[in-house]
From TrEMBL:
Residues 2-153 form the CinA C-terminal domain. SUPFAM superfamilies: CinA-like. Pfam families: CinA. This is CinA domain-containing protein. InterPro entries: CinA-like_C, CinA_C.
Length: 159
């Protein structure tokens, strides 16, 4: 999937940025594991703490206070911030509860919010709950889902 994302970005002549919390840079790593990815990958933001989300991506303290780090609103602001703070034309952001602890009834372990921003389009967000997976499984499934979202967005749009 990472190869397909790189090829799709390269075909459109655009660069990509990642904004990652629960995956800690795994999406950027999946892309940069492939030789030649520097023509497409501009940068990856690992914003594990709320302070990093605010400092590096411009996520609003009000958003974090009102909705929390694991929310639609935060994922959208992370995706927007990655575009605004890079040379990329598309960004993917992830924030979630990888576990094994940290979950709640409202935000269970396995909940991940994804934000995607594509220059010239309204950012979009969606959530997934990866049930029955351990921490590594949630993180791996998050990487695959994020790459799939980027690929689908590029397939559906023309630049």
């Amino acid at each position: 999937m990472a190869r397909a994302v790189l090829a799709a970005c390269e075909a459109r002549g655009i660069m990509l940025a990642t904004a990652e919390s629960c995956t800690g840079g795994m999406i950027a790593a999946a892309l940069t594991d492939i030789a030649g990815s520097s023509t497409v990958v501009d940068r990856g933001f690992v914003t594990y703490s709320n302070e990093a989300k605010m400092d590096m991506l411009g996520v609003s303290a009000n958003t974090l206070d009102a909705h929390g780090a694991v929310s639609r609103e935060t994922a959208l602001e992370m995706a927007r911030g990655a575009l605004e703070n890079s040379r990329a034309s598309i960004s993917i952001a992830v924030t979630g509860v990888a576990g094994p602890g940290g979950g709640s009834a409202e935000k269970p372990v396995g909940l991940v919010w994804f934000g995607l921003a594509l220059e010239g389009h309204e950012p979009v967000a969606q959530s997934r709950i990866f049930e029955g997976l351990d921490r590594a499984g949630v993180r791996s499934a998050t990487v695959e889902t994020a790459l799939g979202m980027v690929l689908e967005a590029l397939r559906q749009t023309t630049n």
